[in-house]
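Extended Data, panel c. Modelled sequence:
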Amino acid sequence: MVGYDPGAQGASLSPEEAALAGSAAGMVTRALISPLDVLKIRFQLQIEPVSSQRPEGKYWGLFQASRRIHSEEGLSAFWKGHIPAQLLSICYGAVQFASFEFLTEMVHETTSYDSQTAGVHFVCGGLAACSATVVCQPLDTLRTRFAAQGEPKVYSSLRHAVSTMCRSEGVLTFYRGLSPTLMAVFPYAGLQFFTYNIFKNLLTPPSTAGNSGGNLRSLVCGSGAGMISKTITYPFDLFKKRLQVGGFEAARAHFGQVRCYRGLLDCAVQIAKEEGVRGFFKGLSPSLVKAALSTGFTFFWYEFFLNAIHNLREERRANGLTKDLGER
């Protein structure tokens, strides 16, 4: 079960074990959903409408954009920025789940609230995600820059990107878009853990509640949680992406129109004036598909790896007892 469970059999999960399971889940999930992430970012950064009825921009829809990226940039383009994205997923998964397990245990030990209630999971999930966001924001900015660039590439490698950005834009450029990210990530992650908790309690029979490792229920519950939370908080993700490519306009000129934003409020106002309310939801289709798969796979693999760690720990304990009995 995700989160501290005082009724679980055996020793409680340590922060190190939660970090290991979270990083492994993030790594596997990132490799699977990278193409959808690239499509989502391309849609979010396009000023022109993303619509097959009004094909003014470079990309009109999922299949058209996929074919165009493949024909112009090759299959590997769907994994552009994969190295910083993988580093982001591993780091983010480790910090988020370790923080979440720690916070839910602290709630159980210091308050009268049940650590397995949906409300506790909302608050702890949001706080854990904020912690992970602050730690991992530079990697997210690098991932966005790599996914956004076309051909010829502006950054040839991760080291080149870091040195170029530090030299030309300063260290603070790695934290572009942090404000909308934090504003979005608390309710987004909170809703993920909240709805996942509710779905798991609805779909998991009481007789198997203590043995709910990585399985189909985790995937289904995580997918539903991801779609709900993403839809509610999506505009903030779009603002973040627009702000993260500030100072990067020259590399995006051949994709279509580019804009400069002075901050979060200016970004929101310009989008509303030029692109309308629909502009706040550009890229929502691939984002929902990605959110369903990403959140579903993250919870699926997290519980899978937790179950594997638990089984390995029990096996070592059993072997230790057997050895002690043999020595006696």
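DSSP finds nine helices and no strands in the chain. This feature is highlighted in the accompanying rendering.
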